[in-house]
């Protein structure tokens, strides 16, 4: 029964990934996003919300832990984080106007959603699917990065290749730190300024707090991966 349940969840997960991929490819490639069009903005928010949905479903139906999706504080993360902040923060836009706050909330919700879906959900799913291989994390990085790049059909082929390379880098950071916090910070920094980064970090720690309240092991400071 447990095996059937697991297979059923994997089938659901793969179908959900295909569903999200088709919608993302269509909307990004064939629909020009206009944030001033509230109907289009509403559709975009619904899509971004769908990126978060697999996490609670995985926790409730497949008994995953939230921390498995990269919501944890590790020794490697604490060592790596200051290094990236030194490079990112001086170059960030420090505009803190009301209008900037609006865009920061919007962009952080979208960009964190992408990290949660690709380097959180898909990455973790690949680790499970390829657990019997020598290096399941290789499959997790490559497949999650490929799907991430394919979703960006609003760009030409050259930029999509660059996006794939960036995704590989973010995937490596996910593997090294066992966390998606640094990928979130980098992704938010590329999308906006300091407020977007702060909002992205805030969303991340909401998930960490939920994991902590669920008595999950969200603090792993014993060994360096």
Output the number of helix runs.
9
Q: Indicate the proportion of strand residues.
A: under 5%
* Overall number of structural domains: 1
Identify the overall geometry. Answer: globular
Binned, the helix content reads over 70%
Report the strand count.
2
| Main β-sheet, spatial strand arrangement | 1-2
Secondary structural class:
mainly alpha
Report mean pLDDT, rounded to a whole number: 91
Low-confidence stretches: none
Largest sheet: 2 strands, parallel
H-E order:
HHHEHHHHHHE
Structure description:
The chain is mostly helical and 225 residues long. The chain is built from nine helices and two strands; from the N terminus they run αααβααααααβ. Helix 7 (157-177) runs antiparallel to helix 8. It has a two-stranded parallel ribbon. It starts with a helix and ends in a 5-residue tail after the last strand. The protein has one domain. The chain is globular and about 45 Å long.
List its traits:
single chain; two-stranded parallel sheet; mainly alpha; 225 residues; globular
Layout of helices and strands:
Elements: H1 2-30, H2 38-52, H3 54-61, E1 73-74, H4 75-88, H5 98-129, H6 136-151, H7 157-177, H8 181-191, H9 194-213, E2 219-220
Parallel strand pairs: 1-2
Can I get a quick summary?
By secondary structure, the chain is mostly helical. It has one domain.
């Amino acid at each position: 029964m447990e095996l059937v349940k697991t297979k059923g969840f994997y089938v659901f997960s793969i179908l959900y990934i295909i569903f999200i991929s088709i919608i993302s490819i269509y909307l990004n490639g064939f629909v020009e996003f206009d944030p001033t069009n509230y109907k289009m903005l509403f559709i975009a928010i619904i899509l971004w919300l769908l990126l978060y949905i697999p996490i609670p479903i995985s926790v409730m139906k497949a008994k995953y832990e939230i921390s498995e999706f990269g919501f944890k504080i590790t020794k490697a993360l604490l060592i790596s984080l200051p290094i990236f902040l030194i490079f990112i923060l001086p170059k960030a836009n420090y505009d803190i106007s009301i209008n900037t706050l609006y865009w920061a909330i919007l962009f952080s919700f979208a960009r964190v959603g992408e990290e949660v879906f690709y380097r959180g959900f898909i990455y973790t799913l690949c680790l499970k699917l390829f657990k019997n291989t020598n290096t399941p994390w290789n499959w997790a990085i490559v497949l999650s990065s490929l799907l991430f790049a394919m979703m960006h059909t609003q760009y030409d082929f050259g930029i999509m290749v660059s996006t794939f390379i960036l995704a590989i880098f973010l995937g490596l950071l996910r593997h090294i730190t066992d966390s998606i916090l640094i990928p979130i910070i980098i992704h938010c920094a590329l999308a906006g300024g300091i407020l977007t980064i702060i909002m992205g970090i805030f969303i991340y720690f909401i998930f960490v707090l939920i994991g902590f309240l669920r008595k999950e092991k969200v603090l792993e400071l014993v060994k360096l991966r």
